[in-house]
Amino acid sequence: MAENDEKIADKVRSIVGDRGEVHLKGKRRIYIKTSKDVLLKVIKDVIDNMGETYVSAITGVELEDTIRVYYHLWNIRSKVLLSFIIDLNKEAPEAPSLTSVIPGAMFHENEAYDLLGIKFTGHPNLHKHFLLPEDTPSDFFPLRSNFKGGEK
Amino acid sequence: MSIVTLPFGPQHPALEEPEHFRFKVDGEIIVDVEVRLGYLHRGIERLMTTKSYIQNIYLSERICGICNVAHTTCYTQTVEQLAGVEAPPRAQYLRLIVNELARIHSHLLIIGLAAEEIGFETMFMWIWRDREIVMRLMEELTGNRVMSGYNTIGGVRRDATEKFINMFKKKTPVLKESFEQIKKVFEEDPIVRKRFVDVGILKKADAISLSAVGPTARGSKVLIDVRYDDPYQAYKEIPINVITYDEGDSWARMMVRVDELFESLRLIEESIEKMPKGDYRKTFPRRLPEGESIGRVEAPRGELIYHLISKGGEKPFRIKVRTPTFSNLLPIATTFKGETIADIPAILISVDPCFCCTERIEIVDINKGKVWYTSRRELSRLYRRDQK
Amino acid sequence: MSFMPKIIGGVIKQVLRRPVTRKYPLEKSEPSEGFRGRMEFYPELCMGCGLCERDCPTGAIKMEFYPNVKRRMPKFYYGLCIFCYQCIDSCAWNAIKPTTRFELSTYNKEELRERVPDEEAPPLKPRKPEKRLYFR
Prior knowledge:
The complex is a heterotrimer of chains A (152), B (388) and C (136).
Chain A (H helix, E strand, L loop, with lengths): L2 H14 L4 E6 L2 E5 L5 H12 L2 E10 L3 E10 L4 E10 L4 E3 L9 H11 L2 E3 L31
Chain B lengths: L3 E5 L11 E7 L2 E8 L7 H5 L4 H9 L6 H16 L5 H29 L3 H22 L8 E2 L2 E2 L5 H27 L1 H7 L7 H6 L5 H4 L7 H4 L20 H25 L13 E12 L2 E12 L4 E5 L1 H12 L8 H7 L4 H4 L3 E4 L4 E4 L2 H8 L5
Helix pairs in contact in B: 2-3, 3-4, 4-5, 4-11, 4-13, 5-6, 6-11
Chain C lengths: L3 H13 L22 E3 L9 H5 L5 E6 L4 E7 L8 H5 L5 E3 L14 E2 L22
């Protein structure tokens, strides 16, 4: 890992402060673990200090006791991928929507809602049947672990 | 005037892949647009958790036919990163060669289709005639014209023979002459310029905030390219020039692809000269440790990212695939406002939509005139009765 | 008007040349040597390890037990095969070999199933692997 990456990780650490933990996970990959209440403020501070950033992907994954959401953002000036991680309650997963900060996250969040059932508060047009056909019921989430279908 | 809703797709002669747009038009001017996806959703992310890492190479290859080399490169790179193994140097150079050859093939396809969309069928036929040369080179190197099956975890499956290198060196002048002609037509022909210039303008600030990637963003002066920012495989040793254009319209996006053709040819020539000798494949364990890794690759249409979460064992726990057209749809949908209906194909083709990458099985019964959606379980029951 | 001679020259050249259409079923075209066609199975070289079944992405290969010679051998179904050649890569005894035959169309799906008949199954002869295994 180049020392350039260490310097950038330290800079991110100083911006985030005590609102989250910052790890350097590999070349140009920085993981930032925060909580869902301060997420939007942290992202706004990082973008204000580090320059233009765009949304690469939003991953949702169901673990044993929580639902975890990764927001992957690529920073153009420093050339690092910042992944913000939050953990949500499994029964009623609600996450803040990134569309107020970066409007391009609209389709990514819609896909996470359609396939996993994560609600994003503040999203302009969250709807089901974005990728799935229209005749599926409204609680049909294929990527959940209790979903039955497809295996032989 | 009242607002009329114009449905466009999923079957339409101007589209190469199925998608559904609902345009709200006032006379000839488009006022609003609504996008509906999901005609090719196949549930691949869920399927990948039921198969082993070796079987998933071929599944990730079939997510998209045209960008299949980029998908296997990204998948094998991500799995190798998780285990902490790097492919041998000769394999990295071979991966660069096959990636750039696939990029030339994909760009020739979309430039030919762009010429056909505006009615310039002669140019379409001539460009696709030269694409045959590239497909024969791919067949010589990988064994198949389009669906290569070349990358594997730990390296590549075959070596580049003397026959391939001689064939490439013989065909390079032919390809270069053809690319010069394409560039001349796109820069000087008055009909091409009238259809593409000042159509579908995407400003730089919008391109970043709406998260455009690939030539869609590079046509609006945003300097992002994964081969330059985050180099992988042999791009660490062979530097590349990033091509950007300032105008932000459909013409700029097509010209980025035309200029990238020359760049890819230069990269292949340089890597053939500098290729080291040695092994092209390494052994790799079947069971992987626990962990996560993220791999990024520049597919012909933009940035492709794979996120792999593993809990140990032979099968992955979760793979997330984000394909470039998924990111590019939102910026393009906002550029439709204010254009006329006749500009719709010109804008759509400039973003190079590859919807099979993006993601239902829809069955149409012509005899009975019925359309119905079915689930994968029903299809398996219908068509697997004879297989035990 | 300076481009007229070039256009007329181009048109005459295209009209007078030999057509490129190849009348396919009457004139065959050979693919290149590394082309991935149908596989061929040699039962006397097979060890019955089952790695081909484990690595096949579509499940086109299934192992079957032959009680008369007390060994396992694979059976192939080309209706599910995608010709990726992972089985050839995984077999350390070279019992599956590649060919370039690609004309496999048939009206009867049963012709696509390939299985060694019971009476032709040879007994197992243990020997050392011939090829390096890349996945351990």
